[in-house]
Amino acid sequence: MRADVFTPAQRSAVMRAVKSAGTAPEQAVSEAVCALGFRRRYRRGARLPGRPDFAFPALRKAILVHGCFWHGHDCKRGARQPKDNSAYWATKIAGNRARDAASAAALVAGGWKLLVVWECQIGDRARLARQLQRFLGPPPSPPTLTSINSRRRP
Ligand SMILES: [Zn+2]
What we know:
Blueprint: H1 8-38, E1 43-44, E2 54-56, E3 61-66, H2 86-109, E4 113-118, H3 125-136, H4 145-149
Parallel strand pairs: 3-4
Antiparallel strand pairs: 1-2, 2-3
Helix pairs in contact: 1-3
The structure holds zinc ion.
């Protein structure tokens, strides 16, 4: 994409959208994953099809965090239609969706299990944690509190 396709106003709107669609949801997922005991068990942006946001090589599982607008989610946020350049955005989002589908198919063909976390699902942190726990299963090592609790007094 050439840089001059955007007016300055459009560019700042894009930057705002990127910020709200990217940073915070990925941070929330990262915190939840660590809280579940998977700290240092995953890689960010691994060289896999679609560059999944979180890859767990030992489990062969990957988590994709999708912004609802950019990836065309079937929700209120995903249904937003920019007034300017609507044809451009429709094409762009259709392209993103096609790429997502191709990447997901390639990962599954390689034996990976996938979980897509949508931006609109991040707000409910308890639900997010349950969703991640169901997907990832039990943590890889026992919780560190066990060693403290096992020091029982007679
Ligand atoms: Zn959504």
